[in-house]
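Explain this fold:

***
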Amino acid sequence: MTISMYQASVPVFSHVLESLSAILDKASAYAEAKKIEPSALIQSRLKPDMQPFSFQIKMAAFAAHNTVARLAGLQEIGVQDNDTTFPELKARIDKTLAFLKTVKPEQLEGSEERTIQLKMGPREVAFKGQAYLLHFAQLNFFFHVTTAYALLRHNGLDLGKRDFIGQVITG
């Protein structure tokens, strides 16, 4: 049996975003319990030259939305930089999850061969849909999710692999 572009994208992004939303709940509760100003976590970085935690959340949501939109030939969104609280970051994830629920498997049929054009710095890169999803978009998405996870761990939040993976799906 083959796996469809829909199966390799929408459920994967949705599952991980749901886990990320639960992690945000834990981070918010942690900040409250430890009397940590939430902005200290939201703006945290591992190094001064890296983007903060909030950016990682935004980019994960942006990557999930725009990957699926590009593959389905739907409207992309721009990255907005105005989320400064845990509720705002959760709302961004919720909006992305709501969008993903509207996408039907048939909208991604044939997207394996669709040409995806991206501007990357000063150059444009063209991918075939399957290569875009498997060798760029998913990696980019997981990079930002993993970085968000690592920033919270670095700041003392008790998270484990189970938090990252979320509810295990067996069927």
User: Anything to note?
Assistant: The two ends are 14 Å apart (CA to CA). The chain has one domain: 10-103+112-165.
